[in-house]
Specification:
This protein is α/β, with parallel strands linked by helices. Helix content is 33%, strand content 26%. It contains 12 helices and 18 strands. α8 (292-303) packs across α10 (319-328). The radius of gyration is 22 Å and the shape is globular. The relative contact order is 0.14.
Length: 405
Amino acid sequence: MAVKLAAPELLRPVAGVRLAAVAAGVRKASRDDVVVLELAPGSQAAAVFTQNAFCAAPVALAKDHLSATAPRYLLINSGNANAGTGAAGYAAAEACCAELARLAGCEASAVLPFSTGVIGELLPVERITTVLPAALASLAPEAWNAAAHAIMTTDTVAKGHSVSVMTAEGPITVTGIAKGSGMIHPNMATLLAFVATDAAVAQPLLQDCLTSAVAGSFNRISVDGDTSTNDACVLLATGKGGVNIRDLSSGVGEALQGAVDEVCRVLAQAIVRDGEGATKFITVQVEGGKDRHECAQVAYAIARSPLVKTAFFASDPNWGRVLAAVGYAGLAGLSIEGVSVYLDDVCVVRGGARADDYTEVRGQAVMAQDEITVRAELGRGNAKTTVWTCDFSYDYVRINAEYRT
């Protein structure tokens, strides 16, 4: 079950983008599992990918195609990750791109492939290529919601968000969709996410915009500490909305960055809220570090601790588990006497020990909520960071134990 999360009611069309979702039976019959996204000529793309050494075939091919030309099409499938499939997997991704390119009349390098699902099984090329004519025939600018549903795997809720902002040069629209529920931990973006804007943005600026947005969103979430083989986050700019971004520090540039930041942050938090078996949405704030890096070390030590996460599932204010995570995060010269820990506004630990005014009743009241903030103050400096995570429930084990059945 998702924590205070509902599928988006409205995802705004982005001028220069059309989408279609079709059913290919990649893993399950009678559900949409292939998405084709078409971009207007002249569009630009920026992307970040998984840092997992066993990156999937579509990741490798998408990188190769991006280095060759600007994309005209994205081809996305759920149900099969096409990862751990070696040269045959790369050839399968190439075959799918080549067929879409043939049907659409473009170069194969102008098609970017993305896959999500079971690792270690070869992509069923014929099933995908068979439905491509139907996908091209049904492309529509309003199909963002259908696409958001088609890319789901263990997700229980489709994830999407739109922002429209007015600038001195005119309106800018940013719409994005994402999928992710398990195997979520940053070493890039921990999911599949596709974000588009109608602004005109040169590719280097677009890459800077995406890198900044990912740093404060997709690279600040963790469900289970596992980094996927298939992570990809793509930002597309069609230039069909009339606003030209030449400098991200300009008024219009800051408006675009703010809109992309919001879309990525909402999508990233939606992934955590829909974490496999999640019953609680947890914000981990670490303050008083020497730099953001060590704050992140502590934040992730807390966020990925199975003992901390199971305590949250049980609504148990077992603050010793949080304190232990702070201690093993690896900070050189950490003075425990300078550490304080809070559950929401309730001080649990002060001076490295249980706070004198803390009571179990107050801690229990916070832990009974489905949204909780854990705040750790390190007393070493002025740096801070925020990470979002969720609890571990019985259902997390069940979902992953049954994933291939």
